[in-house]
Amino acid sequence: MSFVDAREYHSCIYKQCPCNIHLINKKEAQKRAHNLKNSLKKSYIHDCLNDNLNDPKRLWKALRKFWPSSKSGKTTIGNINGAKTAASKAEELNTHFSNVGMKLQAKIVPDPNIDYNIFTPHCIAPVFELHEVTVDDVVDAITSLSMSKSCSVDGITSYMLKSCTSTINHVLMYMFNLSIKSRCFANAWKISKVTPLYKSGSINDENNFRPISIIPTVGKVLERLVHRQCITYLEGNHILSEAQSGFRGSRSTGTCVIDFLDKLY
């Protein structure tokens, strides 16, 4: 009899005959089952973390699963700039998110005493040119999509694309190549579903929210295809500085810290 079965058995016996001996047996069975559950949980967490030690993305996902953030539930958006209706609040946040980049750029004043060319390797590289994609490129980009992502305003999910890849891959290739040749990104692929995520502070301050954008899945596939060509060009011609770790494959804040400490010591 397992610990769980024993717990249920002694609980039933105690209900039928509530005496001290059955109460003791019931508590002992509950204690053994509780200890077993905690032991299995600890072992599962230990194995899960060890399996993902070399994959930071999966490791953080596991950590968030076992120890979720204390922030829970939805946060009510306050009266931003006097806006009270849902539509007016959405407009205020949309305006803020659209202009926040330019506002930050205006605050950055280049230092005339710094030669910023030292951060860019001096190299002679051929002129970058986008090339047309193949069916294999399209299939590979669709396959790399995550199944856990939500869909955008078009209602097309990555699951739908993956399910009918063999049927529409040539159509998508034609559309993507037409976009590359005409240097035009379809307006329908520019419309994203934006969710304001509360950070901290007053809910009436627009600066206390950051946007989470879900772009159309088809447009995301084209972006990945173009991104790969750009990265291949930049990495292949050694244009990016070795000091840059952000937004690069096989690099992270960890590699940046290690490089900094190597130069210090």
Question: How is this structure best described in words?
Answer:
This protein is mainly α. It has 9 helices and 2 strands. Strands 1-2 form a two-stranded antiparallel sheet. The radius of gyration is 28 Å and the shape is elongated.
**Helical content class:** 40-55%
Biggest sheet: strands, sense, closure? Answer: 2 strands, antiparallel
Q: Which structural class matches the secondary elements?
A: mainly alpha
* pLDDT averaged residue by residue: 85
| Stretches with pLDDT under 50, minimum 5 residues | none
- DSSP strand content: under 5%
End-to-end Cα distance, whole Å, is 61 Å
Counting DSSP H or I runs of 4 or more residues, the number of helices is 9
Number of beta strands: 2
In order across it, which strands form the biggest sheet?
Answer: 1-2
Question: What can be said about this structure in brief?
Answer:
With 265 residues, this protein is mainly alpha-helical.
Short key terms for the protein model shown above:
265 residues; mainly alpha; 2 domains; two-stranded antiparallel ribbon; 5% strand
How are the SSEs placed, and which strands pair?
Elements: H1 3-16, H2 20-51, H3 56-66, H4 86-107, H5 135-143, H6 158-163, H7 165-182, E1 193-198, E2 209-214, H8 217-236, H9 253-264
Antiparallel strand pairs: 1-2
Helix pairs in contact: 1-2, 5-7, 5-8
